[in-house]
Specification:
Layout: E1 2-5, H1 12-21, E2 26-29, H2 32-37, E3 40-43, H3 49-58, H4 62-71, E4 75-78, H5 80-83, E5 86-89, E6 95-96, E7 101-107, E8 119-124, E9 126-127, E10 142-147, E11 149-153, E12 159-165, E13 167-175, E14 178-181, H6 189-203
Parallel strand pairs: 1-2, 1-3, 3-4, 4-14, 5-7
Antiparallel strand pairs: 5-6, 7-11, 8-10, 9-12, 12-13, 13-14
């Protein structure tokens, strides 16, 4: 079973439906024991960084999330769920994150009058390193974004894809059992479903 962490924010049902479409069993839960026992864990996210951290804390989920990652449980972070994995965000902050990866989450810098923030809609990803979650995904594939902030990892070796928006930014990271993406695979049609399938069926045989 794949556990989709419910901390009171985000498009949880859309993510669950995406897994259902590729034949992977997924459950929305905030039960720490269920999350820690899951074959794979997904941290989705929509909203403000600080509010999400507060909710994870209030539901007693900060340490369970860290433990499943440390234990090697396959882990997928989506949008804000990717940003939360870093040390801090400047959104209404600085605000401390989970600290799984070294680095910060920063706001896009508007480079010209035509550059709109938030970055919203379809854009391309460019692969920077192999990642099992991206098997079968073409380089320069289009995926769907909605965000005003992006991550700046300290270690460039974790960068899986970049995307251009005014300047290149990190749109996915991968290390060991963790894959996280700034875009929404559940809204990215065929490409996104392939990523969910890789996570739920090819990668981890659930």
């Amino acid at each position: 079973m794949i556990a989709i962490i419910d901390y009171g924010m985000g498009n949880l049902r859309s993510v669950q439906k995406g897994f259902e479409r590729v034949g992977a069993a997924a459950e929305v839960t905030r039960d720490a024991e269920r999350i820690e026992a899951a074959a794979g864990v997904v941290l989705p996210g929509v909203g403000a960084f600080g509010a999400c951290m507060d909710n994870l804390r209030s539901f007693g989920l900060l340490e369970p999330v860290r433990r499943v990652i440390e234990r090697g449980t396959p882990f997928l972070g989506i949008c804000l769920g990717m940003q939360l994995l870093f040390e801090e965000s400047e959104e209404f902050g600085p605000v401390r994150g989970l600290g799984v990866f070294k680095g910060r989450c920063v706001r896009f810098q508007q480079r010209d009058a035509e550059m709109r923030i938030p970055h919203m809609g379809w854009n391309q990803i460019r692969k920077r390193q192999p990642a099992a979650a991206l098997d079968g995904v073409p380089d320069d594939a289009y995926v769907y974004f909605v965000h005003s902030y992006h991550v700046v990892p300290e270690d460039p070796a974790v960068i899986a894809t970049t995307t251009d928006y005014g300047a290149p930014f990190v749109s996915a990271i991968a290390r060991d059992n963790v894959f996280a993406c700034q875009f929404h695979p559940e809204k990215s049609q065929k490409v996104g479903l392939r990523i969910l399938e890789n996570f739920g069926r090819v990668l981890f045989n659930v």
